[in-house]
Design a protein that fits this description.
With 222 residues, this protein is of the alpha/beta class. It has one domain: Vaccinia Virus protein VP39 (Rossmann fold, 3-Layer(aba) Sandwich). It is 38% helix and 18% strand. The chain is built from 8 helices and 7 strands. Strands 3-2-1-4-5-7-6 form a 7-stranded mixed sheet, with helices on both faces. Helix 4 links the parallel strand 2 and strand 3. Helix 1 packs across helix 7, helix 2 crosses helix 5 and helix 5 packs across helix 6. The longest helix is centred in the N-terminal third of the chain and has 17 residues. The radius of gyration is 17 Å and the shape is globular. It starts with 18 loop residues before the first helix and ends with a strand. The mean pLDDT is 97. The structure holds S-adenosylmethionine (SAM). The site of S-adenosylmethionine (SAM) has 19 residues, from strand 2, helix 5 and helix 8.
């Protein structure tokens, strides 16, 4: 990947003024939009895979995994765990398959929409030991707050699914806003600037090579 990516441009310089109000509303009112049939089908296949691999094994989630590069690294680093990578783009997942070959046995890559899959996982009483959100789309326009994961109505379910959430982003505002949303929900979080020598994902590599500052938020429920 080339190192000529532009930094995130936004008219929003800090935390969105409506953030706390939006997060409060989502914490109070459960999101009830029906789950799409294709996501339900994808979840059922994944459930069968998980049972086959051993339901008791710790589960890690790589949401918006793109080509699944990071999912593969996590699966290799944690052979005792099961790793699930989710992405809505068949093109990106296919590109990963062509570049990296078949997934290791403890990795399941699925084409699906994250918000539906998270809700299905929760309904099925799944819990995730570590949930990675690596370079999610920033949605930098102020009017797009509700498309960012912390401004999305699924945010309470995202939090309920895992005690540990790791976000990486090249937009400092996204990390700070996620930290503020976690604080509204009573969850502590730390943010640090990272300078990874070995990039975990394609976008991390691209942004690093383009000279962007990279941010990591880690939230562990106490
Ligand atoms: C900026 S890319 C980052 C990909 C990868 N994590 C990386 O760092 O290289 C964001 C990815 O999230 C996926 N994505 C965005 N919204 C999604 C959603 N609601 N459900 C599933 N995947 C989604 C996109 O298809 C895309 O591959």
């Amino acid at each position: 990947m080339s190192g000529n990516s532009r930094p995130v441009a936004s008219s929003q310089a800090g935390i969105h003024p409506s953030l706390a109000q939006v997060v409060h509303r989502h914490l109070l009112h459960r999101w009830r939009q029906p789950v799409a049939q294709h996501n339900l089908d994808a979840f059922r296949l994944c459930d069968t895979w998980r049972r086959h691999q051993g339901f008791a094994r710790p589960l890690m989630l790589d949401s918006g995994c793109g080509t699944g590069r990071s999912s593969r690294v996590l699966a290799m680093q944690h052979p005792e765990a099961l790793v699930i990578g989710i992405d809505q783009s068949a093109v990106r997942l296919q590109r990963g398959l062509e570049r990296f070959g078949a997934a290791p046995a403890n990795l399941y890559l699925m084409r699906a929409e994250c918000a539906d899959i998270w809700r299905l996982m929760l309904e099925a009483d799944w819990s995730v030991v570590r949930h990675f959100l690596l370079y999610p789309n920033p949605w930098p326009k102020p009017g797009h707050l509700q498309r960012r994961w912390h401004g999305h109505p699924v945010f309470p379910q995202l939090l309920a699914l895992s005690d540990v959430v790791e976000l990486r982003t090249n937009w400092q505002v996204y990390a700070e806003e996620m930290g503020a949303a976690l604080s509204v929900a009573g969850r502590p979080a730390g943010i640090e600037r990272i300078r990874p020598e070995a990039a975990l994902t394609d976008f991390e590599e691209k942004y690093r090579d383009s000279g962007h500052a990279l941010w990591r938020l880690l939230s562990c429920r106490v």
